[in-house]
Design brief:
Keywords: Cell membrane, Membrane, Transmembrane, Transmembrane helix. By secondary structure, this protein is mostly helical. Helix content is about 75%, strand content about 10%.
């Protein structure tokens, strides 16, 4: 059973790598990103899209962890208020 899981995981990784490779090879057009008057050097579309994906994959969990931290803080404050009021 463990070998089947490993084989399926390896197959998934290979399939994902093939899709990313296909995406990169199909999107070689050079574009220049302009934002707030700043112009980036011309790079392939695939580079910009993959960079946006990586930034999103990094920012998403950070925001989620921040939300969890705030939620835990609110729960602790609520428990503290309840303990002080004698409920």
């Amino acid at each position: 059973m463990r070998n089947l899981k490993r084989a399926l995981a390896a197959l998934f990784v290979l399939l994902l790598a093939a899709v990313v490779l296909f995406f990169v090879l199909e999107n070689q057009q050079a574009v220049s990103l302009v934002m707030f008057g700043w112009s980036a050097p011309a790079v392939p579309v695939a580079v910009l899209v993959l960079a946006a994906l990586v930034v999103g994959l990094a920012v998403g969990p950070l925001l989620g962890a921040y939300g969890l931290m705030l939620g835990k803080r609110r729960i602790r404050a609520s428990a503290r208020r309840a303990a002080l009021s004698g409920d």
